[in-house]
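Risk register update: the risk of archive-format incompatibility is retired. Evidence:
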Amino acid sequence: MNKLTGKVAYVTGSGRGIGRAVALKLAREGAKIVVNDLDQEPAEEVVAAIKATGGEAIAVAGSVTDADFADRFINAGIEAFGGVDIIVNNAGYTWDALVHKMNDEQFDAMIDVHLKAPFRIIRAASGYIREHAQKEADAGREVFRKIVNISSIAGTGGNAGQINYSTAKSGVLGMTKTMAKEWGRFKVNVNCVAFGFIQTRLTEATNVKKTIVVEGNEVGIGIPEKLVAGMEMMIPLGRAGTPEEAADGVYLFCAPESNYVSGQTLVVGGGLTI
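Archived output:
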């Protein structure tokens, strides 16, 4: 039996990149997955990949910043699979500018997607978790649940040009520590993974200007090749991480071996910590 057999895991932003790798990793370990992406197609592709290997998954497309998303996301998983065991708050993107060029919309967008959305999702799951934790305690059973919030070394150490992103990701650290204290009595392990330089479409080495549209806003993606080379020279392991390596870090906090670990931040950055 795999270590997550019978568990129900909710992973935001899991149609692409790191989130996709997390969803596939947890599914391989036996979890039933609630997949989310802004767009239906990539979400359904991940569901199909999970089902092709004998797993179970559903797709809940939409923006995590929508006011009704959190309830819709959690309720869909409960209806389909009957539980809430693991939540990975992964969805997000960057929208960079130096402070004197950044407008309020850019700042608020990062707070909304990286900080407010995880808060809403945790709140939406609170009714189920509190009710079932009490029933389990009354029956003398100790059942652990997991919340893994995603931060960044931009949140632990700051990063020029990312005052919005860094502020939001720093806030995730406080959210994690607070929820670990608030929900410890419900046997919920709340931890955080802070990523370093991970290879995704957002961090692709390119000298060509590329953009994506997120909720009607054109956002730049990719990093100039010379800058990528310089960043990799700073990493003790000498290279960027893969989405699969990033997912392995998340899995550590989802596995039963972390049942007595809570309120912690793990940096997955190849030795680069700030």
